[in-house]
Amino acid sequence: MKKSEENTIFKSLFQDNFSIMLLINPENGQIIEANKSACKFYGYSYNKITQLNINQINTLSKNEIKQNLENAVIAKQNKFIFKHKLSNGQIKDVEVHSGKINYFGKNVLYSTIYDITEKINAERKLQTVETKLSRFLNNFPGICFIKDTEHRYIFANKEYERIFNLPANWKNKTGTELNLHSPEIIKNFEQNDKIVLQNNKEIRIIEKVPIKNKLHHWLVIKFLLNNQNVKFVAGIGIDITQRVETEIELGKAKEKAEENDNLKTEFLNNLSHEIRTPMNAILGFASILKKQDITQEKRCKYSEIIQESGVQLLQIIEDILEFSELNTNQAKKSNENVYITQIFSDLRPIFQKKASAKNLIFQIKDNFSENEIFLFTDKLRLKNIVTKLIENALKFTDTGFIEIGYSLIDNNIEFYVKDTGIGINKNKQEKIFDCFSQEESSLTRKSGGLGLGLSIVKKNVELLNGKIYLKTEKGKGTTFFFTIPHKQINTEIINNTNNITTVKKRDNYTILIAEDEEINYFYIVTLLEDLNINFSFLHARNGKEAVRICENQENIDLILMDIKMPIMNGYQATREIKIRKPDLKIIAQTAFSTREDMEKAKNAGCDDFTTQILFV
């Protein structure tokens, strides 16, 4: 074959290839050739892109780019992860494979580029979900563990470590190697693990373990987890020793104890299912996203599934954490003047959309006069109560409407949430607020949930010194009522609220973002730029730098203050800034969202508080 024919074939294979390809001069970084896919990806014409230097696309410094070019030439490294800038300024994460070839008598770098932006974003979301899941499991009031097919421990929560006194080097070791229990007990555990692995189904068992010379009974659910064709046995369990002892000693309490056991068992069954379903989706589609040959449309769809599964999993975690806080009497309440109409206004667009998705009508009855719509109570807990009652109504209503409202009765504000759903049988109404309880076990699988929602609602209502009750008829719907004491409110705050001055819209606003993580800073800027408002951004990488910028800049309109930063944290930075500029608005942002965190931010001088859930 003639050399000219070889060049023609090479150019055809290069130009028409679906992969993004560039030829680069390794001596100066000049782009010599670019195929059609490259022009389309970067948004340049062929003539324009072949006039560019790789320095104009790669976001690294010139020295770093030069070093990478040298590594590729000498074959020291041929795979790179970069951030490349498109013609429209958008930044993409790319994986580059480079190698030296001879092109018309010259040594050039032949680079194939893959867009891995969706993959990187999915991995970040997965990492965030895994962090939340670990936090949840370590706060779960029971034991959780994961073993491989050889019975080696891969994961154990803090409660498991504490109860069984695991040594520091327990990971990747079996129970026999750790000498956790007697050989007979360990053999029994491993036989149960094999049943799960061989039959590919979950089992419910009671495992007996001596702890400190006392035999404990553990109700355990074991189930299978799959990750990239690798099998694991996962287990969650609760100590039912006291229940067993009660059954033995008190025959009269047997029926009640069995009922509690069924509730706990149902809860464990639900919990294993509710966790496993989104986790399998997250792990499965995250693995698929690592493949290079899937379409962009599928990448977007899989990313949406991962995000939706993550939100579902986070809701489970939040319910468990809130239930644990309320059930252990650690919950605290705060009091403030609450504008009830505003709470309902905030909820309206959220639940109108959800109701419309089920062809339901969502309506709010608000007949109060302007002087009767304030309440002195805990705003967050009140909003949480109403939200969970509406979500419960949506879950069990297929046709008709959902209505919420409130009225003044004696010295109480009585709220209600009414639906035209399935209703509740009379013999189940007294137990509907119990922990882990739902009217029928079949509803758990049909409608989902852990059976904690109404229990959380009842405990929150009681924390606010209120009462809750319901009126229902099977097949005709349910109305939940709850009361909150109508205490005397601060009229001065009301007057100030009604006389808030209107701020004129300006052409430009300056926002200082105090954030030590570059990715989070870039993400916040991206979100704010989508608002189509002319913002100018300043970036402080720690609290001390934020204070210095505020001292030197007079035109800052708002500060988004990360709480956890090096050198000086957000709380201290806020205090120092407020001393110098008390009117400057500061919004605290953090990945942690406990009431204590909110109170600390408020005490430090922050004007508002938001969590970094946007980064999930």
Please tag this protein with its features:
616 residues, alpha+beta, Beta-Lactamase, Heat Shock Protein 90, 4 domains, 5-stranded antiparallel β-sheet, globular
Tell me about this structure.
With 616 residues, the chain is α+β, with helices and mostly antiparallel strands. It folds into 4 domains: 3-115, 2-Layer Sandwich (Beta-Lactamase), CATH 3.30.450; 120-327, Beta-Lactamase, CATH 3.30.450.20; 336-493, Heat Shock Protein 90 (2-Layer Sandwich); 502-615, Rossmann fold, CATH 3.40.50. Helices cover 43% and strands 25% of the residues. The protein is built from 20 helices and 22 strands. Strands 2-1-5-4-3 form a 5-stranded antiparallel sheet. The radius of gyration is 30 Å and the shape is globular.
What is the 3D form? globular
Q: What is the share of helical residues?
A: 40-55%
CATH superfamily of the largest domain: PAS domain
Name of the CATH first level of the largest domain? Alpha Beta
CATH architecture of the largest domain: 2-Layer Sandwich
**What is the number of independent domains?**
4
Percent of residues in beta strands? 25-35%
Unreliable segments (pLDDT under 50, ≥5 consecutive)?
441-447, 496-503
Gap between N and C termini: 56 Å
Report the structural category: alpha+beta
What is the rounded Rg? Answer: 30 Å
Largest sheet: 5 strands, antiparallel
SS element count, helices: 20
The assembly state of the depicted protein chains is single chain
Please give the order of strands in the largest beta sheet.
2-1-5-4-3
Please tell me the overall pLDDT. 82
Annotation, overall tally of beta strands: 22
CATH fold label of the largest domain: Beta-Lactamase
